[in-house]
Each structure stands twice: as C-alpha cells, then as structure tokens.
Amino acid sequence: MALTCRAIGLLAMMVLLSARATLAAPPPAAPARLAPMLLQLLDEYDRGGESALRSFSSARRIELRPSAQGALLPVILEPSAGKSTRDIDARAIEALGGRVDAVSESFVRVLVRPTDARRLGELNDVRVVRTPTMATAVTGFGSIVSESVALTNASVLQQSFTGAGVKAAVVDLGFQGLSNVISAGELPANTIGVDFTGTGLESTTPHGVAVSEELLDMAPGVQLYCLKIGDEVDLQNAAAYLRTNGITIANHSVAWVLGSYYDDTGPINSIINSSHDTDGVFWSVAAGNAAQMHWRGAWSDPDQDGRLNFTPNQNTLSLGLYDGTITVFLNWNQYGNSLTNLDLYVLDGTGAVAASSTNPQNGPQDPSEAVSFSYDASLAPYTVEVVWVSGPTSGLDVTLFSFDNTFSPGTASSSVMDPADAHGAVAVGAIPEASYAQANPPLEAYSSQGPTTDGRIKPDLCAPDGTSTYTYGTLGSYGTSFSAPIAAGAAALWQQQFGVVPPSNMLSVLDNLARPVGTPIPNSQCGYGEVIAWHGSVACGAGSELIVVLPALLWLRRRRERPPHGRTSQAPERSSRKA
Question: Are 254 and 171 in contact (CB under 8 A)?
Fold first, then answer.
C-alpha cells in the first residue's frame, strides 16, 4: 500500500536553510548578511503583500507569528566568527524593528515585520540573517500497548525492569492532544512538558504524543519529558535542558535537510554530537522515510548540455505525488566553499518552468537550492532539472531530497538526513510489525538507508513500525518516527538495570542483543539488526548469555551493588508490568 494511504504519523522532516561558518576576514556588507532564502521570501512579500508571505511561508513550513501590526516573521541570527550570541545587542535589534524571541548558545531567533527584515543586515557582530528551519508532516503505557513490546521481548524484561528512576525525553515538533492522552491513561499524569517555541506545547502536531506513547509502552516506569522545538535555537536549548536536568535518554523523530552534506557536520549534528559526547545523552533518532524520495550521484553531463544526467540517457527526474505539494531540495558537497553554482528547476507537463531556485553560490553561500509549491493535476507530470551555471564539476557530488514526492529514478542508498548521520545519534530504521518475527524480514520500502555520504554505516538498528497508539489508532503509526522510541525505551529498561553508562556502552548493549538482519553485520539497511530487548534463551537469574555479552556493564553493576564490610545485598525488587 502506498505510504500516504497508511496514515504515516509524522517523521518530522526539518529543513535547515542556514549559512555555515566560514573563515571570511572582514564582516560582510549588510546585503550580504541576508541569506538568499530570506531574500526570496521578502521578494514574495514585496510582490504580493501579506497573503503572498503567508502562502510562501506555509509552503516552506515557516510559522508566522500574529501581532497587532500584522504577521511577524521569525528569522535566525548567527554571530560572527569569534563572537557569541551574548555579543548581539538586543537594543540594536529593537532599533531596527525586531524583537528577540529566543536565544541559544549558537543562535538568536528574532521576530520582525517583513518590512523591517532587511534592516537586520545592518547589525554588527552578525554573520548571517536567514530563515529558520522548516518542518513537514511525514507521518505501552495504558490499555493500548504497542505491538513492539511483545515483538522485541520487552514484555519479558518488564517483569523485572520498567525504566523506574530513569529520565527520558521526547524532543519533537508538537504535542497536540497531550492532555487528552494523559486523561485517557495512555501517558502518565506526572509527564513534564516544556515548550521552547513560545507557540504552545499542545499545538502544531500530535506527532510527539504518539512517539511518547511508543516509548512509554516499552518503558512504562520512566519519568517522561515532552520537549517541544521548532528550529535549531529550540533544539540547542532542549539539549541544554537535558544536561541541566540530568536526562540521559532522548528520542528525536525528526529529520533535517540542507544543514550539511549528511556527513556528521553542520549545526544540527553538532548539537546532537555535543550532547552525546559531552553530556552523555543516548539519542535515539529516526533514520528517515526518504528512501524513495532521494537521489544521489556524481555530476555527469555526457551530452554537455549543462544539465545533470540522472541516468546516462536521462537528465530529468520524474516526481510522484503524495499529498498535493511539490517539494524538492538540492545540495552538493561544497559546504564552506561553494565554488560551483547550480540551479534547480521544476518543469510541468508542458515543459514550462513551474518553480525554480537560482540562488548564487560563489564561495560563502551554502551549496543548496529549494522549491516548494502546490501541485496542479492539470499541469502534471512534473519533472526536475539541475542546471550548471558556473564553477568546477570535477569531484562534485549531488543530492536531492523531497518532503512529499517520490523520485524516478531514485536512490535508496545514502538517504539518511541530519541528525541520523551524526556519530552521536543511534539511527533506527523501520521493519513492518507484521514481518518483524520473520527470520530475515524486509525493510520498509521508505525506510532511509546508509551509508552516510562520508562512508559510515547507518542506520544502527531497526525496530517495528505500523504499530498501535491511542493517537493514530490500531496499527496506524507508520514511519521510522515510531521505530526510534522502541530503541529509546529498550535503553531505558537497561539503564534501570545498569545505571547511567556512556551512550556508546548502551549502544553496545543493544547491538549485542539485536537479531541480525541481512549481511554483512552491520550493514547499511538495518545496521546490527532488529531491536530485541531480551533474548528468550536467557534464563532469568542465570545470566549466562549476559555475562558473555555485557561483562563490563555487569561488573559495573555488581560493583555498585556490593555492600560495605562484606554484607550480602538483597536482590533488587521485581516490578510487575502493568496490564
């Protein structure tokens, strides 16, 4: 069945339209500080007023804020090299018509009227003024229990461990309906919610609630935190919140594009990696649902017509339709020094240009282009062209993603986005719940695959999807969004047993318990295999297999439990699983 026909929850795909830090010497002139994507948006406003602004922003998943003066536009400020966000003067921002809305370690979010937005380019100590990230919808605890609990044998482990005493956070784009789900008994009453966006915790999407349900079904004893984010400012502040509150397990069923070349670099990956490396947070991340919405390859133009060939005889990419929107994102491997200038075009069935993105790339700009517009059936079919404008093509590697459309031809390999490609993220792919018990089950056709563009194996693990939640109904939670919290929940169960350990050690636990899928192990389709929380061959109390698999962690646990003066410790109290 087609992906859209299965009520895919919301693997939130985020687009980071940012400029990366460069080594430019003098600060750029004011116009150069305004990123091309922001200028596109302001040009739309100049041509069509606030209605055009709303249409353009909606297509790019930018949430405008209401005010008495009309719609306010959120923009992101990045400090100049050698400066911090503390050096950016809030009074200077107000003098130019803006208002600081949120600040993180690396970013400042400002709300500004579109008529004043260009003036922000006059700010000192600011490297770039750009649009924020953009989100799009892609897709137990209580009486409705996810099928994943039985499929991963977590139901057996829950007879001894429920995640009690463990703090776990779901970092997501929205928690619409959270109060109702708590009232229904599907999430605990002591759930802690924090809104970093200023738009309301229970708004935008119910996605985070369904993800939370999956995690709590796996580990019903954890202290749950629901942290709502909307862009990179919020994500960095959420990571700081984890550190401050001692939260060491986090789920992030969100994918971001255009922030890097999917190679463990860029601002989003940096936030996750720092939280993992420095703060010891185990991040379980959705691998993505983009295996059929992705193309990657080396620049090829055998007919020398200045257009990228997607196959030896085809220089157009055909688009399939999902939900009435066309979205295409292009980037290439020149972050930090974009010497090659490429343009992106979408053509309709008559051959006319339906949309284009022609931002300049001549050094400091990000090597990226993006288009998004409403589908018109009378003008279908739509095709994509990538056109060379200037610069070298030797060694040029090109990637295209979509939020809403399949590609033909497409490329399943290397279809993981940020932060699934980060070394600090445990990327989790999806296997249909109906096939999970098979000896060598198939991956979901849409589940993103590795390797990363720098050659590392991802995803790390796979877990079921198509499972049941109160939010999305019986067998209605499709997408890797709902596979990731299965790994997070399994980690929470084992954290109760071992205490807080480095996230790399916890990943080793899950890797060793995983049921292999495919060859070799690990591989770029399913990593080390299916998440299995407990091996049925392990006799309760015998521990023979665990001694082989986890000797270091068992030693740590026994050392913690060893009583002083040779006294014998009591066996840990066994908790019963909620029916």
Answer: yes
Q: What is the rounded distance in angstroms from the CA atom of residue 148 to the CA atom of residue 431?
A: 11
* SS3 (DSSP) at 317: strand
- Identify the H or E element spanning 39: helix 36-59
Relative to beta strand 192-195, strand 223-228 is parallel
456: nearest Cα among 250, 263, 257, 326:
263
Distance CA 413, CA 330 (A): 16
Strand partners, 495: none
Q: Could you give the 3-state DSSP secondary structure of residue 212?
A: helix
On whether the CB atoms of residues 295 and 436 are closer than 8 A, the answer is: no
Q: How far apart are CA 420 and CA 523, in angstroms?
A: 15
d(CA 453, CA 477): 29
At 379, list the tokens. Answer: 């003008």
Indicate if 83 and 199 belong to the same structural domain.
Answer: no
pLDDT above 90 covers a percentage of the chain that reads 75
Backbone φ and ψ for 394, nearest 5 degrees, come out as -65, 130
- Model pTM score: 0.87
CA–CA gap between residue 515 and residue 432 (Å, rounded): 15
Regarding whether 318 and 279 lie in a shared domain, the answer is no
Answer whether residue 27 shows pLDDT above 70. Answer: no
Domain count within the chain: 3
At 94, which CATH number?
A: 3.30.70
**171, 271 in Cβ contact below 8 A?**
no
Q: Which residue in 394, 378, 384 sits closest to 315, CA to CA?
A: 384
The owner of tokens 């019903």 is 220
Please give the structure tokens belonging to residue 206: 């119910």
Rg of the Cα trace of the chain? 24
Give the pLDDT mean for 367-389.
93
Q: Where do we find the tokens 């600060």?
A: 27
Mean of the pLDDT values across residues 531-549?
53
From the number of C-beta atoms within 10 Å of its C-beta (0-12, 13-18, 19+), residue 579 rates as exposed
Distance CA 290, CA 369 (A): 18
Residue pair 101/111 in contact (Cβ under 8 Å)? The answer is yes
Report residue 315's pLDDT band, with 50, 70 and 90 as the boundaries: very high
In this prediction, residues 88-93 reach a mean pLDDT of: 95
CA–CA distance from 428 to each of 192, 233, 467, 556, 575 (Å)? 25, 25, 15, 27, 28
Q: Are residues 153 and 269 in the same domain?
A: yes
Structural domain harbouring 390: 299-408
Omega within 30 of 0 (cis) for the link into 419: yes
Shared-domain flag, residues 199 and 277: yes
Q: Are 479 and 139 in contact (CB under 8 A)?
A: yes
How far apart, in whole angstroms, are the C-alpha atoms of residue 76 and residue 38?
10
Pair 187, 567: CB distance under 8 Å: no
**What is d(CA 348, CA 171) in angstroms, rounded to the nearest whole number?**
38
Burial 37-69 (b: 16+ CB within 10 A, else e): bbbbbbebbeeeeeebbbebbebbbbbbeeeee
Structure tokens at 143: 């009486």
Q: Which tokens belong to 238? A: 């959420």
From CA 39, how far away is CA 176, in angstroms rounded? 32
